[in-house]
Design a protein that fits this description.
The complex is a heterodimer of chains A (347) and B (429). Chain A is mainly α. Chain A contains 14 helices and no strands. In chain A, 55% of the residues are buried. In chain B, helix 3 (168-181) packs across helix 5. Chain B has eleven helices and 18 strands. Classes of the chains: A mainly alpha (347), B alpha/beta (429). At the A-B interface, helix 1, helix 3 and helix 14 of A face helix 7 and helix 8 of B.
Chain lengths: 347, 429
């Protein structure tokens, strides 16, 4: 159990670094665009207090500004997650689950930099009670609490998860600036040159804090797979599902349907959620066949909803929620076939 | 036939034992342990303080009184210990050092019935095991196959090839006797890198498995040679050293009352093979062999053995090794860092986290997590349908070791098998 927790924290570390770096970089970039004037708010006040050079920032400035955005979100998420876990562990007479650190980190990395503190507190409390505590903690709940926390904020406050208000604002698009731009390009006929695939892969684009850098996510995936926690079948399944449906939509063509699979891969929170949320062993299928099925289903549905529903371009969170709920059903079918095969083979 | 069984990431727990049998130890007392005979209600035939010879019946099965368990030494029954619900824990026989043993009559023409009769009389019948359940077989029944296990891949186990080459004649005579015992196929399961010379003509079918754990588990052999179904047919299996004992019985009229075991593990100064009496006291085996003050001794392997403690501190009937490990300085040292905020009772195990590790060490054809869940919640029919009948405790040892929730699945499986047996659920309606 402790081994799992340690490896998971190690795996998410590169993503955390990328999140801090990119959030600081994007914030300073936006400020520079506006001639150094921020839009007010305590984050601006605090960076001014720290004497951050907004015109010609150093690496240290970038990290400091990144931490100003990431740390408070994490702190509040952790305080609320820890509070509820403490209450449940006390009441249920069980060990305090240190996995809440990881849950809070996952949640933080799925938040936009400008998220309101009330939303964090609300989402985390809801998830820790209804997707964690009342089931008896990790391994007994069937949904990942971080996923539920993000989903409940997305449903309750649809505008909460759009980008930082200071940044190039495109209303109505949750999740990723890249996707939003793509959609706008389709409707406005803008030039498709504003950003390059490598930027999206390395993570120097705007988006939810932890989800921009696919490179860091791949590093995390390597750690998780080396530690034998994430199932490679689930990951490969998602990739196959994604490529499959993307290829089909490419063949149909027209508008967003033309988006090739390697763009789908680096856009939105697909990579991050596929590696850190979908492979959570306790909320995914528990048989190898089931893992293949669940992965393919998740990858396929994400692309499908992305391209057919322009009002919800980053479909990752609802799809993973749906697929997590389907996992017991998938397992049920796999078990049924296993029992039938045993009865037929051995008589 | 050759079956490849994938190796499981190994454990490092000390040096492998030397491959020569270079010591022989005697023991002041030998014990028969109740836990070695699951599913059997034992009746004590020799009361406390009564003298017994080696080979004399000490216990019998209450339901099948012809199934006898015999004393491995001559001496006096010094203790009959019972536990909860008067379950027999152990019968201890203190050796008198005289070595008196009963001479059994060897049948002139060994056939099915006379072999069975002699095996029952001499206590060797109780070395056979059935699958499903791992019980002593019913003398009136016939198996659909008989497996001889001449491979042992448990960590630090003795190499069967060394022991069989030492007791070559007895082993081949034992095999021949087994062929006369049943009409059904007799399989000899061996490691891939070992060759046995079998006397011709012989209807023993040789199958080789890998040489890394878990290739030596009987459950794996049965799965590939003669799988257990829901039709009530059973497979019998016997260990190679018990075959040697059977050969000895049919050549001299006396079973082999000793076994070659390996004494190894991180706490052992000089890991090696040695000959010890059946059921020898663990203290006598380890006397003068351990290089440390704080240690834990296990009868059997570190994966599926029993910690030697209390009245059960003797060599198990099916154990071919004694493992002695250096004990961590404090029993609390493996506490989780969650114990900083600890509010629990300390005895609970964590939830089952279905990591892919569990699938990679699962017995073949078994869906690990659904089966473990069925065991945890006590769903007998689901566990049976998922293949619990193919398994005994040792098959789940790797799963217990891998499971992050620290649940020991062996006892859960045993409870479930007992219930299936009691309620006659082994055939599927």
């Amino acid at each position: 159990m402790d081994r799992i927790r340690t490896i998971r924290l190690l795996a998410i570390f590169p993503v955390l670094i990328a999140a801090v770096g990119n959030t600081g970089y994007q914030y300073l970039l936006a400020l520079a665009d506006r001639g150094g004037k921020g839009g007010g708010g305590w984050r601006d006040e605090f960076s001014r207090f720290l004497n951050i050079d907004t015109v010609d920032p150093s690496g240290l400035d970038i990290i400091a500004v990144g931490l100003i955005h990431v740390l408070p979100v994490f702190a509040i998420a952790f305080i609320f997650a820890g509070f509820w876990e403490r209450i449940f562990s006390e009441k249920r007479k069980r060990r305090f689950d240190t996995g809440v650190i990881y849950t809070a980190l996952l949640f933080t990395l799925l938040m936009p930099p400008g998220v309101a503190f009330f939303h964090i507190a609300f989402g985390m409390s809801f998830a820790m009670v209804f997707a964690h505590g009342i089931f008896g903690g990790e391994g007994k709940s069937f949904l990942n609490p971080a996923l539920v926390a993000v989903a409940v904020i997305q449903i309750s406050f649809p505008s909460a998860l759009t980008d930082h208000p200071l940044w190039t604002s495109l209303n109505g698009f949750a999740g990723s600036k890249n996707l939003a731009l793509y959609h706008q390009q389709i409707s406005d006929g803008l030039a498709w040159s504003e950003f390059a695939w490598w930027d999206a892969f390395l993570g120097t684009t705007q988006g939810l804090m932890g989800t921009t850098s696919v490179l860091a996510v791949i590093a995390g995936a390597a750690v998780l797979m080396y530690g034998r926690i994430a199932s490679w079948r689930l990951l490969a399944g998602q990739l196959i599902g994604l490529i499959l449906v993307a290829t089909i939509t490419n063949m149909i063509g027209g508008g967003i349907l033309d988006m090739p699979w390697y763009w789908h891969l680096v856009m939105g929170s697909f990579a991050f959620a596929a590696v850190f949320i979908a492979t959570d062993p306790s909320s995914s299928s528990s048989t190898n066949t089931g893992r293949w099925l669940q992965g393919i289903l998740a990858g396929a549905l994400i692309v499908f909803i992305r391209v057919v529903n322009p009002s919800h371009p980053d479909s990752v969170i609802p799809v993973l929620l749906l697929v997590s709920m389907l996992a017991p059903l998938i397992d049920h079918v796999v078990v049924w076939f296993n029992i039938r095969r045993r009865a037929l083979r051995h008589g | 036939m050759r079956v490849n069984i994938k190796k499981v990431p190994g454990l490092r727990i000390g040096n492998t034992p030397d491959s020569a049998i270079d010591a022989s130890k005697s023991s002041r007392s030998c014990s028969l342990l109740g836990r070695d005979y699951p599913g059997t209600r034992l009746q004590v035939l020799a009361d406390e303080a009564s003298p017994v010879k080696a080979g004399e019946a000490v216990l019998c099965d209450r339901q099948r009184p012809q199934v006898l368990l015999t004393s491995p030494v001559s001496g006096t029954v010094t203790a009959v210990r019972r536990g909860a619900r008067r379950r027999l824990i152990s019968v201890e026989i203190t050796s008198d050092g005289k070595g008196d043993s009963i001479q059994f009559d060897i049948p002139a023409n060994p056939d099915r019935d006379s072999i069975r009769h002699l095996m029952l009389q001499s206590g060797l019948w109780a070395t056979l095991r059935t699958r499903p359940f791992g019980h002593i077989p019913d003398p009136g029944r016939d198996p659909k196959a008989l497996l001889v296990t001449a491979i042992d891949t448990q960590p630090l186990a003795p190499d069967p090839a060394v022991i069989i080459s030492e007791y070559d004649n007895q082993f081949s005579l034992g095999l021949k006797t087994l062929c006369d015992l049943v009409d059904t196929p007799v399989h000899l399961c061996k490691a891939a890198n070992v060759e046995f010379l079998l006397e011709e003509p012989c209807r023993v079918r040789v199958s080789s498995f890998g040489d890394q754990h878990p290739a030596g588990l009987v459950g794996r052999h049965i799965h590939s040679l003669s799988p257990i179904g829901f039709n009530g047919k059973e497979v019998w299996h016997i260990n190679y050293q018990d075959v040697i004992s059977l050969g000895q019985l049919f050549s001299t009229g006396r079973p082999w009352y000793e076994r070659v075991i390996s004494l190894a593990g991180s706490a052992v100064k000089n890991p090696r093979l040695m000959t010890v009496p059946l059921g020898a006291a663990i203290d006598d085996i380890t006397a003068g062999e351990l290089g440390t003050k704080s240690f834990r001794v296990i009868s059997g392997s570190v994966l599926s053995g029993h910690t030697s403690i209390g009245h059960e501190a003797s060599l198990g009937q099916r154990h071919r090794q004694v493992t002695a490990l250096i004990e961590a300085s404090s029993p609390q040292s493996n506490a989780s860092y969650g114990s900083l905020f600890y509010a629990g009772r300390g005895d609970e195990s964590d939830a089952l986290i279905p990591t892919t590790d569990l699938d990679s060490v699962a017995p073949p054809g078994i869906l690990a997590v659904p089966l473990l869940r069925a065991l945890i919640v006590g769903d007998v029919e689901r566990a049976r349908d998922l293949g619990a009948l193919e398994l005994v405790e040792e098959d789940l040892a790797l799963l217990s070791y891998t499971c992050p929730g620290k649940t020991d699945y062996g006892p859960l499986l045993r409870n479930m098998l007992d219930q299936i047996y009691r309620e006659g659920l082994s055939t599927r309606g």
